[in-house]
Specification:
3 domains, alpha+beta, four-stranded mixed β-sheet, five-stranded mixed β-barrel, Immunoglobulin-like, OB fold (Dihydrolipoamide Acetyltransferase, E2P), globular, 24% helix
């Protein structure tokens, strides 16, 4: 019988130990293997432009997985200051996601500092909603869960509406192919939706004109059409992306009425 050499025995032992470790601590190994294949660069944050954009290594970087308020909107300054306090003049990991650059030639990155995902912290603190225009990646579920937890805590952008109609208006339909949504007033009284707004994960906003939704009646909001029973999302050929999106409905005070993602 052929003898097994010592070197071969050692290889077999190593494989055996790895299999044991794999079975005992799979989550640890899974995370370790993922981190080994993560593509990133290191840079220093030189300037923070706003809550989801900064300058690192002389280049513009758009934070992945999030969207923060625009200048002039509530929580714009808070989001920018939050990002500045955490990252300005610090060395960070710039982790590359599914897409390297956006249409404005900005680098798309997750900002990692001391092992923490800074993009995620903005969502956790209600200073950004989650945003995945290129499709769901390995962080999607974590960011969505962070948003759900933020709503439970009623923080900043996650604060729930106190309008009497907040429990009346429900999402009846969202049709991505038809680029339309249908809202329904389930209550036995009229709801004034003037100043309410519908938003996707990104920058697209629809603001209701002077409009009252009658009791137990539906209203359709659609990109590209306008009639008595349809409100037109002006200037938008499309709003809802096929790769996944979220509807956020807010009252006239900017408080959250409902949200739904697909």
């Amino acid at each position: 019988m052929k003898k097994i050499r010592l070197r071969d025995k050692n290889k077999l032992l190593l494989i055996f130990l790895i299999l044991i470790l794999f079975g005992v601590n799979y989550p640890f190994l899974d995370k370790t293997l993922k981190n080994l294949f993560v593509n990133y660069e290191v840079g220093i944050v030189e300037r923070v432009v706003d809550g989801d954009t900064l300058i690192a290594n002389g280049s513009s970087v758009r934070l992945l997985g999030i969207n923060t308020p625009e200048k002039g909107e509530e929580f714009y300054e808070q989001a920018k200051l939050f990002l500045e306090n955490l990252t300005l003049n610090k060395f960070v990991k710039l982790e590359i996601g599914k897409t390297n650059k956006d249409m404005y030639n900005r680098s798309l990155r997750y900002i990692i500092l001391d092992g923490e995902n800074i993009n995620l912290k903005l969502v956790e603190n209600g200073l950004a909603n989650y945003y995945f225009p290129s499709g769901k990646d390995r962080y999607y579920n974590t960011f969505k869960e962070a948003w759900e937890n933020c709503i439970e805590k009623n923080l900043n952008l996650c604060k729930k509406s106190e309008d009497k109609c907040a429990d009346c208006v429900v999402l009846k339909k969202l049709d991505v192919n038809g680029q339309e949504i249908v809202l329904f007033n389930k209550c036995s009284f009229k709801c004034d939706l003037s100043g309410w707004r519908i938003k996707d994960e990104g920058r697209k906003n629809f603001v209701f004109p002077d409009f009252v939704l009658d009791k137990e009646v539906s209203i359709k909001v659609e990109a590209g059409k306008d009639s008595e029973d349809v409100l037109y999302w002006k200037g938008k050929e499309y709003v809802w992306t096929e790769t996944g999106d979220t509807i956020f409905l807010r009252d006239a005070d900017g408080k959250l009425v409902l949200w739904w993602g697909y």
